[in-house]
Amino acid sequence: MAVSAALALVCTGVTRAAAVQEEVPTCEAQWLQEAKDGAREAQYYSGLCALFGETGVSRDAQAAVAWFRRSAEQGLPRAQYALGLCLQEGVGIEKNEEEATVWFRRAAEQGYAPAQLAMGLSCSGADKLPPEAAAAAAEWWEKAAQQGCAWAMMELGFMHRDGKGVPVNKMAGLRWLRKAAELGIASAQNAMGWAYMNGEGVDLNYEEAVRWLIPAAEQGYPNAQVNLGWCYERGLGIPQSDEEALYLYYMAAEQDFEVGISNVGWCYYFGRGVDANEVAAAPWLRKAADKNVPMAQNLLAHLYREGGAVERDHAKAASLFIAAANQGHADSQYEAAHCYLFGCGVEKNVDEAFRLLNLAIENGHFGAQTELGECYEYGWGVEVDLERSMEYYRAGAQIIDGEDANSRAHRNIARRYYRGIGVEKNISQAIRWWERGANQKDSDSMNDLGVCYELGEGVPQNLITAMLWYRKSAEMGNTIGRYNLGRCYELGIGARQDLRQAVRCYMPSALQFKPAKAALERLGVENQAMLLAGGGYVIPAAMKVEVVGKVAAAEDIPPVMSIQVTMQDYLPEEERPKRVSDDSAVNPRVLKPHVKSAAERVAELLDKSEQYLRAGEPADAVDTLLEAVRLHSSRAKVMLALCTYHGLGTQPDKKEARRLLQSAMSRCDVWAPLALELLNAREAPREQR
């Protein structure tokens, strides 16, 4: 829909013939008569009436442009600016940005702040701003900001903060951004929140960050919604709430903000604020990956590599890992290196693998240190060098209490000491490294500690402690830990013998682990085949189990350590049950991503509202505009404000109309100030018009 049609029809709702029969308010009649007599102010206001729709004046964007031009040619800066806007956006006239700039400049040179803002925007239109254009933009914005133009204050703040067109001056940048934020500009409020979140130019203060982010998020600014969601997710400056975080991410995703889309997928993938559901995560991650969000590309690649939620496709996985790696995503650099190292989904390329691993290390990925260590231990692409591999393992394990500590490095060092590979065999040292891994919540290390306590290797034998370590490992979903815990219940190791509990431990593990499947076969569990084909991983507590087989002797089923397990111990892919693929069956609270973008949906809604207005159905037009406003369309707010002001399709409410226009102005809508100026002029005393 053309903007001119939307603005010109917004207050129609009746035929032009019917409108002419209405009583003509004094101000419109006065402006129209004075405009015909050549008064430039009256010509300007008559143009606004024609553009936005006022009783007794034809709603005609072309007529509006004609009045603006006559006034502009007489030198009225407001009319010159309005004419420039029409030319810039093609409202009532063919789009002509060069001529628009001419009129903006004429108004700006007369000191008109909105035109100075427009001049700055026209100077900064290129993606890569040349220094002279940036300096010109900063100069225009400085003039507009000094006159109180909030949008210009915001732009000038970013220029000072980032050193574009002016020397870097973060303090000056924050001063201007704070002024714009205090005047309600959403992007400036978000910038202030971001500064306090990261301690950029101010002391780190999450409470202050949240104070600025909340009003910006409430105005529908997607960046602020994501930033505030991040604070909710981590409980920084506001009570922790995964549900609130997911809601805010979804609100941002509704506006096609790629980070919001990616974060909704992340929440489903990891189960934050909603039940974990990889099937539901996939379409969100795919949509964000198409927008080149590296985190989404990374998670979607994991789904393609693992299969289940989507059809397994190693080539797609590798392609996504590589795309994210090229954007500097450390985990993707590590995963892409793995693909190149083993030719998984991409042609084998050891040089590229090592290049990516070193990039990942530079970006702080400790797993890459471990991967290089394994390359040197096993001779993957290089000569075997056990000493060098141990150096990489120790480098990967150097942070043991931080978030980035790499438990796989702990396990590898423990394994080397346990078996005496490249170092003197030392089970006590191995146990110390397993304990470090367990402290990092590594389920394999927990299981291996359990084996040591069960067998009394390196520690005094303690069957209860062994069973407790197996339980911790099993509770984290570890396949081998579940199996060993099942053994404890079957044989009465560190716990009372309980064959039903044993089966409940074996069952999830038997979905992919051959020893657990063999245990169920040995025990002769009734309906085992049906249970294994159930398609889920959680066995109901009320499951009825009848054991008809024979319990083995303890010496016949020794404990399994993670370092003893090989790929042959796992079920072939074709034998593994498929996961449930119907997302509604898994989780009824699935948020569906929209097929169309927010911009496309808003355009359709504005077009539909125009059709309703032409058909004389203003109430339906208002309902349609409300739907667009819920998608935070500033243009819809302007149109709805005018309907609300005149009581067209809704109850008249001048206060609400002004609120809507102020909200549109806070999102930097160029037409909202003109509409507000017209409403104010209509209500001004006669002598002030």
Can you walk me through this structure?
- The protein is mainly α and 689 residues long.
- The chain is 65% helix and 0% strand.
- It contains 37 helices and no strands.
- The protein has helices at residues 3-9, 16-21, 26-36, 40-52, 61-73, 77-89, 97-109, 113-123, 131-146, 150-162, 170-182, 186-198, 206-218, 222-234, 242-253, 258-270, 278-290, 294-306, 314-325, 330-342, 350-362, 366-378, 386-396, 407-419, 427-439, 443-455, 463-475, 479-491, 499-510, 514-523, 528-532, 583-586, 598-614, 618-630, 634-646, 654-666, 672-683.
- Helix 23 (386-396) packs antiparallel against helix 24 (407-419).
- It is elongated and about 110 Å long.
- 50% of the residues are buried.
- Mean pLDDT is 86; it is low at 1-6, 8-24, 400-404, 529-542 and 579-586.
Key words describing this protein structure:
single chain; 689 residues; mainly alpha; 37 helices; 65% helix; elongated; disordered N terminus
Could you give a short account of the major beta sheet?
none
Kindly state the percentage of residues in helix: 55-70%
Number of strands: 0
What does the radius of gyration come to?
Answer: 34 Å
How does the helix and strand content classify structurally? mainly alpha
Rough outline: elongated
How far apart the termini lie comes to 33 Å
Poorly predicted runs are 1-6, 8-24, 400-404, 529-542, 579-586
Instruction: Bin the strand percentage.
Output: under 5%
Q: Specify the number of helices.
A: 37
Query: What's the assembly state of these chains?
Result: single chain
What's the rounded overall pLDDT mean? 86
